[in-house]
Amino acid sequence: MIPRHQTVIFSVLLLASLAMGGILFHMREKAHERLLAGQDSAPTKAPEVAVPEQATLMVANDDDNSIRGQVHSLPLPADPGARARAVLDKLLELYAAPDAAHPVTGGPGSVEQVFLLPAEELAPHAGATVVQSDGDSGPELAVVNLKGSFVASHPSGLETETLTVLSICATIHANLPRVYQVRFLVDGETHESLAGHADLTRTYLVSESEPAESVAP
């Protein structure tokens, strides 16, 4: 015969289990209702994307150590920093292609971020002509933050490294004309060189590159 106190304990535990089961079932039904409500209220219209615009990419060529302009249609963000990153992503995508005239691995995503700041004073002998209009904030400095993986895999050599750096500078200036100076970071920190030769500790002037006329891709 089961003692009375054990019967009472068993009955209490059974009632508690039934109550917890009911509560869990009710919570599950509520969560399901919220999920369905969230699906019903979700927008059915696809998010709008940036309208494609004409962008000029200053593309390097190892055959004659030149930089030539190519016009591409790209969806470009309104924010200048994001805009600069978008055109550089396309430039590095061209370099990562199998038939690239300036082969560099990495491709889109090799640039972590681009910051725009008031430019340092341009040297009079630098050859940069800055035209300011009313309301113009003046020349700007672009800080390009490269990913360490891109730098680590970049081909070593003075000419190939210099072409990469100058083509990046020229591409930014072609699409953001107020940018006349460019500096480089790697993973957010100052880095000595791109792959052992091109100096990344200095400030580059866009006037250092003299590309040929732009052509369609």
What descriptive keywords fit this protein?
23% strand; 36% helix; 3-stranded mixed beta sheet; 217 residues; 4-stranded mixed beta sheet
Describe this structure in words.
The protein has helices at about 5-40, 80-95, 150-155, 160-175, and strands at about 50-60, 65-75, 110-120, 140-145, 180-185, 205, 210-215. The protein is of the alpha/beta class. The strands form two sheets. Strands 3-4-5-6 form a four-stranded mixed β-sheet. A hairpin with a 4-residue loop joins β1 and β2 (about 65-75). The longest helix has about 40 residues, at about 5-40.
Structure summary:
The protein has 217 residues and is of the alpha/beta class. Helices cover 36% and strands 23% of the residues. It contains 4 helices and 7 strands; from the N terminus they run αββαββααβββ.
Tally of discrete structural domains:
2
Distance between the termini: 94 Å
Order of helices and strands: HEEHEEHHEEE
**Binned strand content:** 15-25%
Question: What is the alpha-carbon Rg in Å?
Answer: 29 Å
| Count of alpha/pi helices | 4
Mean pLDDT: 82
The rough form would be described as: elongated
Regarding quaternary structure, what we see is single chain
**Largest sheet strand order:** 3-4-5-6
Q: Into which percent range does the helicity of residues fall?
A: 25-40%
Which structural class best describes the helix and strand composition?
alpha/beta
Q: What's the total count of β strands? A: 7
